[in-house]
């Protein structure tokens, strides 16, 4: 029988879905990799498993003794929380106060402890708080540090990259990914482009790698010598644009960085929902960037794969769903047809 022994054994093996209908004139084939179908519904499930597995292998994590402490924008924290619950670790997570209530509920329901930090300092503020908690815990505390941990890109070299290569029959030409920690875009590109440091032979050295970041926070563009566009500051694309350039990000692997404004990300997210594909706003940003790249004349008939990082149900308190939420709350019950007596259900007359 093909049966998983524990939840973390279900991580990986996510499918591709054809999103080419979003590309004008079907100029190119656009495929989305549905990381939203992982056990805890995000690409960060891979990262959480990889970091915990590696720390256990190194003897840094001991069940019943060690306490996991990590700054997160939400989904990495959820991944760590479900595996911590599975394996018997106490888990303390720090996160900016702007992260959705759904994420907080998920973390608390999984038994994690949540500490919110000021939105003005984004993830760097959550990192500072996590370090303070770590010091208080002494030798019991362990921070896996997703932004610097080599186990982050490693899992994408070993799983995400091979899955994409296999499922596209090696026909992928363009890879598009958002940058939260930078692990996905780095690991997948290393696997397909080739990376002697990690014994990855060049499968397609000319793979065109596109990173996506919020237009309101163009730190990666700046790090590559580019110019920022428009006003810089807070954005609404949860899961990317953490307010820093992650150390695990292989900037030299990037062929282009596409900035996407929060409003454009929201528009594309709604389009995906109307296709029957519930996603979060970071998915909208990535698909928006992918459609832009696929629409170019030079990319006619090419195959692009973009990451769909997380499931949409986690974002209902995001401002983009305010109108939908108001409609849902304004719904009222309707009277039933004969032979029901609707006075029994609080209506003024038998017919309502």
Question: What are the main properties of this structure?
Answer:
352 residues, alpha/beta, Rossmann fold, 2 domains, 4-stranded parallel beta sheet, 10 strands, globular
Largest sheet: 6 strands, mixed
Classify the helix fraction into a percent range: 25-40%
Radius of gyration: 22 Å
Helical/strand content category: alpha/beta
Order of helices and strands: EEHEHEHEHEHEHEHEHHEH
What name does CATH use for the topology of the largest domain? Rossmann fold
- Helix count, DSSP H or I runs of 4 or more residues: 10
Kindly state the number of beta strands: 10
- CATH class of the largest domain equals Alpha Beta
Description:
This protein has 352 residues and is of the alpha/beta class. It folds into 2 domains: 7-37 and 149-322, Rossmann fold (3-Layer(aba) Sandwich); 43-143, Rossmann fold. It is built from 10 helices and 10 strands. It has a 6-stranded mixed β-sheet, with helices on both faces. A 4-stranded parallel β-sheet has the order 5-4-3-6, with helices on both faces. The N and C termini lie far apart (55 Å). The model has no long low-confidence stretch (mean pLDDT 95). It is an enzyme of class 2 (transferase). It catalyses: O-acetyl-L-serine + hydrogen sulfide = L-cysteine + acetate. This is Cysteine synthase.
């Amino acid at each position: 029988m093909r049966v998983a022994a524990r939840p973390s054994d279900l991580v990986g093996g996510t499918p591709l879905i054809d999103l080419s209908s979003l590309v004008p004139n079907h100029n190119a084939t656009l495929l989305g990799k549905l990381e939203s179908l992982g056990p805890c519904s995000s690409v960060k499930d891979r990262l959480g498993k990889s970091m915990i597995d590696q720390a256990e292998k190194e003897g840094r994590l001991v069940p019943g003794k060690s306490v996991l402490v990590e700054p997160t924008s939400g989904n990495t924290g959820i991944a760590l929380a479900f595996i911590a619950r599975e394996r018997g670790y106490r888990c303390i997570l720090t996160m900016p106060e702007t992260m959705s209530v759904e994420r907080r509920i998920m973390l608390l329901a999984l038994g994690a402890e949540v500490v919110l930090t000021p939105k003005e300092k984004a993830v760097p503020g959550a990192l500072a708080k996590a370090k303070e908690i770590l010091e208080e815990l002494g030798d019991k505390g362990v921070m896996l540090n997703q932004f610097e941990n080599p186990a982050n890109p490693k899992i994408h070299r070993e799983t995400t990259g091979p899955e994409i290569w296999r499922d596209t029959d090696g026909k992928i030409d363009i890879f598009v990914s958002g940058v939260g920690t930078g692990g996905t875009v780095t690991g997948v590109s290393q696997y397909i482009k080739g990376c002697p440091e990690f014994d990855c032979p060049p499968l397609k050295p000319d793979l065109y790698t596109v990173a996506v970041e919020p237009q309101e926070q163009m730190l990666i563009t700046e790090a590559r010598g580019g110019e920022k566009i428009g006003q810089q500051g807070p954005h609404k694309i949860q899961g990317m644009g953490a307010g820093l350039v992650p150390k695990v990000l292989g900037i030299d692997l990037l062929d282009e960085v596409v900035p996407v404004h929060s409003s454009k990300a929201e528009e594309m997210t709604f389009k995906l929902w109307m296709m029957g594909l519930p996603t979060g706003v970071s998915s909208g940003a990535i698909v928006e960037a992918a459609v832009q790249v696929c629409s170019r004349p030079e990319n006619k008939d090419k195959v692009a794969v973009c990451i769909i990082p997380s499931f949409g149900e986690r974002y209902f308190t995001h401002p983009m769903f305010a109108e939908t939420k108001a409609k849902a709350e304004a719904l009222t019950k309707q009277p039933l047809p004969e032979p029901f007596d609707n006075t029994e259900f609080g209506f003024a007359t038998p017919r309502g």
